[in-house]
Design brief:
The chain is mainly α. Helices cover 85% and strands 0% of the residues. It is built from 8 helices and no strands. The protein is elongated.
């Protein structure tokens, strides 16, 4: 019986560690999104100034700021909100209960999040447009891949343009 209780305790601890890691993932995604949006906003502010509008590389970098900001927003609404709902709404204690068949261990050691009130869940569910509509599900999937490839394409185009400017700089004069 002791071996079973040790196994159940290990299982409970691993589920708690898994939940903690997922929470850190959500918080770091939110932090990266907001820092990225601030940085891209500053980039847009710089590249729309009259002094920089005449440079062709500024146009590429301005477009890159827009594309990256859109990608961050799509990621925030697609993955981060969905993970938050999964963490705070779904309880993994049924896994432990099925394996251990001991509600005593489950009730004693499980830490359920009772502070997550229903209005927060309703807010998250309303923000989760992707799971609520097939149109938004298809659109977000398309946007995620399109913006990712567009960002890489802009960087390649900028690099090619800068290479040509440096390589053939003396022919223009």
């Amino acid at each position: 019986m002791s071996n079973n209780s040790e196994y159940c305790q290990t299982l409970i601890d691993s589920l708690e560690a898994y939940t903690t890691i997922r929470k850190l993932n959500v918080y770091s995604s939110i932090l990266i999104t907001f820092v990225g949006l601030i940085g891209n906003s500053l980039g847009v502010f710089v590249f729309v100034q009259k002094k920089y509008r005449t440079h062709s590389s500024s146009i590429y970098l301005l477009l890159l700021c827009f594309v990256d900001a859109l990608f961050l927003l799509v990621h925030l609404f697609e993955d981060t909100v969905r993970t938050m709902i999964d963490i705070y709404h779904n309880d993994n204690s049924f896994i432990v209960d099925e394996i251990c068949k001991s509600s005593f261990l489950l009730n004693e050691n499980s830490s359920t999040n009772n502070s997550f009130t229903s209005w927060k869940f309703i807010l998250l569910k309303s923000l989760n447009l992707i799971d609520n509509s097939q149109f938004w599900c298809i659109t977000s999937n398309f946007l995620r891949y399109m913006l990712r490839f567009l960002s890489a394409f802009i960087i390649v185009t900028l690099t090619l343009q800068r290479t040509l400017v440096v390589r053939f700089s003396f022919r223009n004069k």
